[in-house]
Design a protein that fits this description.
The protein has nine helices and 14 strands. Strand 3 and strand 4 form a beta hairpin. It is elongated, with a radius of gyration of 27 Å. It starts with a helix and ends with a helix. A nine-stranded mixed sheet has the order 2-1-5-6-14-13-12-9-10. Strands 7-8-11 form a three-stranded antiparallel sheet. The chain has a two-stranded antiparallel sheet with strand order 3-4. By secondary structure, it is an alpha/beta fold.
Length: 335
């Protein structure tokens, strides 16, 4: 009899302990679920909000969204012609590194100050599907003969142009790009970069906002009243620590375009212009998207991605390297 009473008491204690354990487990699970949903909300907040909604503040003529002429990938080889400043220039090496990492064929040339450009056709077929200029001023400042040859080639074979502008200490605060209805404001400090969700060239890049100061104070922003230009990346001016840069930013209000797409409505040639190099991570994504778009997806990679996770990294990895809950959620979120 005493044994039965003892068993009953022990059983009661066991049930109470189990109930307590279950309650604690529920509370802990609810806590982690709440923090996970809070993190998800925080990631959602990175999406394009009011930063890119008010495009009326841009120094571009605002009209209804325009659809550029589709690029024809036929009649030309899937090769990129790259004009670099020198074989040692950092931006030129960055451009080539991105082409090589995506396994895109290319041909690099030193941008000619004067003189002929390489042959663009062979037996009625275009040699290149895209032209990239490391320095947009070299492109805009070509002699009339070579510029006419390049423009005719781009029009006949539906070839686009990508070009970069990197401001230096001696750059003019504002300059008009020769031959284009476009003004460049240089050496500007920026913050809160956002991707224009209306841009037709987006492929890999998502329309989100990268909050915080952008690296460097040597950004170039583009201004134009012609409808051919569509902003791709936008950012806000931020206070500069350099007195000279403060003068350059005078009169800049609201969001400014740091990457623009020329839809070809001005002279028939489609272009994408960058207001800095490839040191900023979003520029690298936009460059891949621009290559894909301007070649009619001929030079493009599949959007399918595979993530290989070593089981050791989850269970027996060293402290600081093993995966945790946030890592797994991050992998899931960015699929």
């Amino acid at each position: 009899m005493k044994l039965a009473v003892k068993l009953r008491r022990n059983l009661r204690r066991l049930v109470i302990l189990l109930a307590t354990f279950c309650m604690v487990s529920v509370i802990i699970s609810a806590y982690y679920l709440y923090t996970g949903s809070a993190q998800e909300l925080d990631l959602t907040d990175r999406g394009v909000g009011s930063d890119c909604d008010d495009l009326r503040a841009l120094s571009f003529r605002q009209v209804e969204p325009r659809t550029p002429k589709p690029m024809d990938p036929s009649r030309k080889d899937p090769v990129v012609l790259v004009f670099v400043e020198s074989q040692y220039s950092q931006l030129g090496q960055d451009i080539i590194a991105i082409l090589e990492s995506n396994q895109f064929r290319y041909h690099a040339e030193i941008a000619p100050g004067k003189g002929d450009i390489p042959p663009l056709t062979h037996k009625g077929r275009g040699r290149y599907a895209l032209v990239i200029y490391e320095n947009v001023l070299k492109y805009a400042g070509m002699d009339a003969w070579n510029r006419d040859l390049l423009d005719k080639y781009c029009l006949e074979y539906s070839v686009g142009v990508i070009a970069f502008h990197r401001a230096g200490e001696n750059s003019q605060p504002a300059l008009h790009l020769k031959g284009f209805p476009l003004t460049l404001r240089t050496n500007v400090a920026l913050r809160d970069c956002c991707v224009n969700p209306r841009s037709p060239l987006l492929y890999v890049t998502r329309a989100e906002v990268d909050r915080g100061p952008l690296p460097g104070e040597d950004w170039t922003v583009f201004q134009s009243n012609h409808s051919t230009y569509e902003p791709v990346l936008l950012a806000k001016p931020r206070p500069s620590s350099d007195d000279a840069n403060k003068q350059n930013q005078a009169g800049l209000h609201g969001v400014q375009a740091t990457v623009v797409q020329d839809l070809g409505l001005y002279d028939g040639v489609q272009r994408v212009l960058f207001g800095q190099g490839l040191g900023y991570w979003l520029h690298r994504l936009i460059l891949v998207d621009a290559i894909s778009y301007l070649t009619g997806r001929k030079l493009s990679r599949s959007l399918e991605r595979y993530i290989l996770v070593d089981i050791d990294d989850i269970f027996v990895g060293k402290k600081g390297t093993r995966m945790n809950v946030d890592d797994v959620k991050g992998c899931y979120w960015y699929q």
